[in-house]
From TrEMBL:
Species in which this protein is naturally found: Oreocharis arfaki
Gene Ontology biological process terms in this record: tRNA transcription by RNA polymerase III
Pfam families attached to this UniProt entry: RPC5 (PF04801), RPC5_C (PF19725)
Taxonomy, superkingdom: Eukaryota
Protein name: RPC5 polymerase
Skewed-composition ranges (Basic and acidic residues): 134-143
Domain DNA-directed RNA polymerase III subunit RPC5 C-terminal, residue spans: 432-678
Amino acid sequence: IDVFLARSLLEKLYLFQYPIRPASMTYDDVTHLSAKIKPKQQKVELEMAIDTLNPNYCRSKGEQIALNVDGTCTDETSTYSSKLMDKQTFCSSQAASNVSRYAAAVYKKGELHLTPLHGILQLRPSFTYLDKADAKHREREAANEGGDSSQDEAEDDVKQITVRFSRPETEQARQRRVQSYEFLQKRQAEEHWVHLHYYGLKDSRSEHERQYLFSQGHGLAENTELIKSPSEYLMMLMPPSVEEENDKPMAPSNVLSMAQLRTLPLADQIKILMKNVKVMPFANLMSLLGSGTDATAVLRCVQQVALLVQGNWVVKSDVLYPKDTSSPHSGVPAEVLCRGRDFVMWKFTQDRWVVRKEVAAVTKLCPEDVKDFLEHMSVARINKGWEFMLPYDEDFVKKHPDIVQRQQMLWMGIQAKLEKVYNLLKEHLTPKKQEAQSAHPLVVSGEQRVSMAKAKVKQNYGQLEKEFQKQKAEMKSKDASAKTDVPNIRIKEEPVSVEEPMDTSAHNEGLNNGLVNGLHPAQGSTDPVNGHLPGGCIDRVAQELKAFVSSTFKKQFVLTLSELKRLFNLHLASLPPGHTLFSGISDKMLQDMVLDTGCKQILVPFPPQTAASPDELKVYALWEAGDTYDQHRQVLLEIFSKNYRVRRNVIQNQLSQECGEDLNKQEVDRVLKVSFCSLW
């Protein structure tokens, strides 16, 4: 079949798509009453007649609609002059934004003539007459309500007018105004309608215009566009539509189509993968790129968009935060965000753990930005900090030492920049001592920890034994007179059945070598075990114990015996080997020392069914600390000695009565926090 391109109606031919017509309407020459068009907007309005004599037409409904729209009076402004809805208006909308691939075809005598379409318009019913009916209804209601207020109309003649002067419009404000929806609507409304005349199908003018659908000349000069190869010819008929591809539903931003990805160049593939994943071992990157990909080319491309951290590739900061962007949390520019994220990456090159507060203190960025940095490459661990999310990739480091060396040089340059920007101290620059970054598991099991502890104890046992013998010799030399008559010395021993030695298992289990409170039991009877001390050592032990108790209760005014013992064990762990407090302190000695330092035992009436241990039920408080809250604290202790649970308003009233002060809620909270910070 010969195909010809007709040009006579180029940029003039439109395709109208009518809706499914009701039974009372036919699209013929009679029904088209008027038509008008806005060429720039390609907007058309057609007014078509409705057959009111059709048996399917509801006359009562048509009269009611005409009455609602026009009211009882009929004039030139009436929509329905016959007092009957006898016409319908149709408005157009564009069916497709790009119609360059569509054409109207006419087949005649073995020839196909094509005329490109300038627009495809869908016609839909317009219901503007309903808006007119609503306006009429509101006018009638306003007239009825305003009938009684006609006497006040004279007073409404004088109105105050406020004059405002517009500011000079900036270029940015003008661009925003031009792109606004209101401005575009105003521009569209300003375009004038061009009235059209409708010619029927059998009209002579229509017959004449239809001839333009055929190509006027069959010579080669008229159809040079069609002298193409078959593939070029098909490409002309069906060109790829960019806009329709954009109209396809977009996938979520965190979803990546691997089929589309592999159509891109290798550098773009690696950049998109690293930007989405952020941290990736080299082996995983190679598996995502598919088989047959050259590893050397991948290494060359990945170094452009990522940096090596603990043998793994982490996307560069400037890829995540391009120039001229800012933080969605704080509005900080991309340059500052890149420096802060580079500092976090550099910290992970020094250690597997990073503390969030330290990063925030150095970078001076908001917590949300710092959290984003850390979530990109690490995982939060309770009471430890943020750990790098991937294990150390020793295989890559061994296979590519040249890459590792090049990356180390890059990090040295980044470190130098960070030192200048943040004025880093030595504590920030010196990496923490850690196990060598190797393939050894970072998570140590319980059995391994026990074996490591035993080995460490055996290693230090000889040194501990020497220090103990040295201390023992010093004690004997100082107390020579007392030790000449050891059998005559009587030390009041505590009855074992009444008071047991203080539980220091948390400290003893760490040694696990038969030591009791830090000393070996297989010594003479004069050795300090479980509170039985040589005479000359008692005073020093008492002084050390009193100093500990005093300093502890000055920091935390109220403590249970359980908490006090825990703090004492922590204090013992911080002391050097052979300290006098390692001689053994019983519970009774500790409680007596608490009472001697000015503390009192508060007999809190806990309920009998409580699950607390006996040590947790013994509460001690410093009665006088010498601060401004002594009186308030004593009142609180008296209150809790009568009931273990008290309402806040009762405490507030009692404090106001006893102290003669009218305390508000914030002041009461401050007193409670200062007095009972260790318990409640």
